[in-house]
Amino acid sequence: MTTKSDTKLIRTVCPAHCGIDACGILAHVKDGRVVKVEPAEFPDPKYRRICLRGLSSLDITYHKDRLKYPMKRVGERGEGNFKRISWDEALDTIAEKFKAIAAEHGWPSIGWVLGGPGAGTTKFGAYLRLASLTQSTRVSAWGYGDAGLPCGSRVIFGSQFPYALLFGNLLAGKAEPDMVVVWGANPGESQPLNLMRPIMDAKAKGARLAVIDPRFTVTASKADAYLGVKPGTDSALALGLMHVIFKKGLHDVPFILRHSTGPYLVRNDTGKYLRGQDLGLEAAQEYVVWDSAGNGPALRQAEGVVPAIEGAYTVSGIACKTAFQLLKELCARYTPEKAAATTGVSADLIIRLAERIGRVEETIFVTHMGFTRTYHGDISLRALGTVATVTGNVMATFKGGHLPAVLNWKPFLKAVPDKPSYSRLGILQLYDAIISGKPYPVKAVWFSFINFLNQCANSGKIEKEVFANLDFIVDTELFMTPTARYADILLPVCSYLEFSDLVPHPYPFVQYQQKAMEPLYESRSDADIAAGLAERLGFSEYFAGGEDGFVDLLLDSRDPSMEGITREKLREGAMSINAIPEMEEAFDIPLSTPSGKIEIYSEGLVEDDQALPFQLDPLESPVPGKKTKYPLAFIQGHSRFRTHSMFANVDTLLEMNPEPVVEINPRDAGERDILDGDRVVVYNDRARTKLKAVVSEGVSPGVVNIMQGWWIDQFEEGSVNHLTHDVINPVQVKIYEPNMHMNDVAVEVVKVK
Questions:
Q1: Which of 18, 593, 696, 721 is 20 to 30 A (C-alpha) from 659?
Q2: What is the pLDDT of residues 269-289, one digit of tens each?
Q3: DSSP category for residue 70
């Protein structure tokens, strides 16, 4: 903290951007009031930046509609009728209701639903610790049900998140790629500072940029090549790219041999990897390869072995092929022409992109959650990861680079080491638990930093069946959101300027979000709220340190990545996580897959016919050759004016972006007699949503887009997620948890007469 005349300058951080953006903020505080925010200094000055949303921090903090005190519902759920109560009454009521429900149904019947916006950690940690102590249920590890990407990542890369493996060096400023491929993401709007800027820096140094997206986005406008792929056909595009790469011999054989399961033999009869036990060897679970030097089978790590990368072999009477051979045979079926027919991307563009990826020294693949918000989104991620793998563009070396920060989550995930922790359900599984009691009943839900009704799939079902079947709903909020209107107890929470937190972003930095001002009105931080409830449930000792105590716990990981980083040092500014020592040669990527390698073939999904990243038809989105009741693929992009539904009520931003619209291609608009500016209805069997049409070449023919994050009451009728569905993909349940498929929806659009 520094002082400038009678104004205090406090270095904090804006955590309001979902994902990897989190800008350092210098808060100017006068007479206890923050009067100005500006970008804070960084060890690397290029990170000194702020965006529209960050500049709107004071509009949020001092908004006239902020919730000011605890309230209890007095009308019907959804009416928004509440009366003021004290904090003691609110927390006593919650504790009594939770105890009563747990006594009848067990503690897992209490669900904690924690959202995505905000990159802070103490608020997550506080509720996770309380969930662990009570052995209740944590709902979704991925905020808004974005499980497609982590499901796919777990299959091919293990539990490591693909950011560090695919574009971590770009974020860390360590990369100078020849090519950047942005696949199904729009960082120009959703992550403009810490992701789009490095991309533009790479372009300025000569890198070529390709963007793959159903929309011609802000990011696409900066591209050298744009591929307008049909929603849900990303695997077909990836297979088409690999067809060209393999045909022209552009794959990276040494990388595939060293870092992937490509050379491992797969049994023709079972589809499982051949192991030592199949050959009667003592190393029963060890993988077997075909040794080209010895012209016979060998264990993968045996000395002097030269594994064959492709081919068919018979070992002890067992017919086998290498995993790479199986991948190559799949890709052989996806000629550029076939891939073009499925994806809508021209064969010429597919060939040119494949050749460039294969021929340049380094290509960086950038993605996020968007393109995995489909029924088979996990396979889409695996397909992208496989393209990166076969071309050697997964980070196998970290020369002077950084591994992800290792924070100490153990005290929160398992608060008492020798006792069970919380149960876990995905968001879509929560629907069933509430409505039908499967796999077990959930009777009460606590919402924090999530606008659940507004942002989750099938909003109509949430209103009519999910909320209707809950005995008790608690929400901590800044505003009377669509979700808050359904709460039984509504608690006012702090803005980020009013509490302390730890923010492990932007990669590779860690920042301390120092409290810049005292909480306004009767608001409290999530950590304080959790502590108040914990006291009434008999767990106050686990919350004695408050927010700063949780920050210290998180920093105390005793991992080399965090050595020397303390809260006191972080007060002065961001600190970089520790770089690994310089290496002369590449070393093996430390993956947590069963094989410890990049698994381009997953034996765990053989029974599901998904061992390879096949192109599987979307659940609803129309594709060539598939008849659907509704002809248009509906997707929802992210806006620069909002982070999910945050900032949707900020007047200064609404002046620039005043209302929701549906973007429709001129061809589709012409067929429906729709002109730019007409009022239209977007509909399917689930709902009708009424809003203004914008006729634009920015969406591909057959696709319509409504930017997500608008509040339900900002539509004339319906909303974005009234149109979406909540169908569960059982394979994702098997892997981790089911994804919400916001971009795998079919609709029709008609003009309002």
A1: 18
A2: 999 999 999 999 999 999 999
A3: -
